[in-house]
Specification:
6 helices; 3-stranded parallel beta sheet; binds 4'-phosphopantetheine; Rossmann fold; alpha/beta; 43% helix; two-stranded parallel ribbon
């Protein structure tokens, strides 16, 4: 698919940082497939379907909604990219510390699939400290989530940690 990109991640859950990257991606590509990795050996708080629903809700009112598809996958990302006939992967890089892991992952993916390249995007600098891991930590201890995630995600997180 020409002028399309995959935006893969765990999205457990979607944060304002993810949304910022997605918003940038739709300016650059005609179609962006948000690709939710499930069963990637990481213990997740939300199921794949829940994570998709949270992303869906976050973008339903955006004027660029039609440019976005949301799908889940299990297995190797490059296999999914090939299945979708997409050869661009998008990843958000917040800080230099992210880059080491991202660089290794991008080069591994390119070794496995030379036709697939990774493009790194930077979020707004106000959002560079946000990660899903930190958001879950704040949620676990009952902290204010309002500047990290959309309201409906904060509500879903509170639901997960209230029992
Ligand atoms: O949001 P995350 O957890 O940083 O996303 C990482 C993800 C899901 C993109 C990555 O772990 C992934 O692609 N997993 C699928 C397995 C795979 O293809 N690994 C790449 C070889 S290093």
């Amino acid at each position: 698919m020409k002028n399309s990109a995959l935006y893969p991640g765990s999205f457990d859950p979607l944060t304002n940082g993810h949304l910022d990257i997605l918003q940038r991606a739709v300016q650059m590509f005609e179609k962006v497939i948000v690709t939710v990795a499930v069963n990637n050996k990481k213990k997740s708080v939300f199921t794949g379907d829940e994570r998709i629903q949270l992303i869906e809700e976050a973008i339903e009112d955006k004027e660029w909604r039609d440019k976005v598809e949301i799908e889940q996958f299990t297995g190797l990302l490059i296999d999914f990219a090939r299945k979708k006939n997409v050869n661009v992967l998008l990843r958000g890089v917040r800080q230099i510390s992210d880059f080491e892991y991202e660089f290794r992952m991008a080069l591994t993916n390119r070794r496995l699939a030379p036709e697939i390249d990774t493009i790194f995007l930077m979020p707004d600098e106000q959002l560079t400290f946000i990660s899903a891991t930190i958001v879950k930590e704040v949620a676990y201890w009952g902290g204010d989530l309002s500047s990290f995630v959309p309201d409906h995600v904060a509500k879903a997180l509170r639901g997960k940690y209230s029992s």
